[in-house]
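Feature request, filed as a ticket because there's no other form

It would be nice if the structure record came with a short human-readable summary line next to the tokens. Right now we just get the raw output. Example of a typical job, pasted below so the devs can see what we mean:
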Amino acid sequence: MQPLRRIGILAHPLRQGTAPIAQDIARWIEAHDIETWMRTAWDASRAQPLVENTDMVIAIGGDGAMLRAARVCAPEHVPVLGVNTGHLGFLTEISPEDWQTALETLLRGEYWLENRMMLRCEVRQRGVELTHGDALNDVVISRGAIARSVRLETYIDGGWATTYHGDGLIVATPTGSTAYALAVGGPILPPELKNILVVPIAPHLSMDRPMVLAQGSTIEVVVDPQSLTEVVLTMDGELIASLESGDQVVVRASESVGQFVRLRERNYFYRSLLDRLEPRVPARSPNSAAHINP
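Raw output as currently delivered:
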């Protein structure tokens, strides 16, 4: 691994307790003769110039903080290490109690980088691009506040696939397969895959099964031209746009890749996931035999 010369710290601005941890970490890093910068209140436009020429960013918070940090760091190829002060922390790596031990391991070079695909989303209106952006988890096209179903014409690699009729549609990465997509019955995809997952939300008399698209596929979703229902687009849980009838949402793999610093073994994912989904199931040795009562 390259020696770490400059480390940034991004703390969650609304989560209590993150600022003191950030300050403690910054002092510790500086005591080891490594340049550092810190932000406890930030947005992408202000953090982006700081991320340039940074070797690593430490994000303090939950998965939301990790998503925000990853979107800022990915274009600059800067890896993110997560300190979990949230609830689940699927994306984080270390706990607030263990950060010093973890950073000592880090400075010894005993870590690896995990790459995760991101999505590029473009919104077009009558063929003209209105906005675009990248997402680490998912792009969601759904109804607004009024409880009316929406109709979404869906094309895969240029060919019509189906028209969804329901509350909306989730287009997710493997990372996002354990987020909103999992909550509505989608499959769990290992993070190293580069496939796009498509999951309908509360479908009514239409395609109700999730689909895993081939690597490199492009999906286009068109709001039904006859639709009178409010339709909104969110990326990683953040509202991006209100869509009008006939608007197009095009999603494909992004050129940017999210990088995460890992200190655990490379097969950590499944055990980490099941610890959260089944926290009461006791750990077993891989070589232990099942005991069957007579």
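Something like this underneath would help us a lot:
The longest strand covers residues 248-262.
The longest helix spans residues 18-31.
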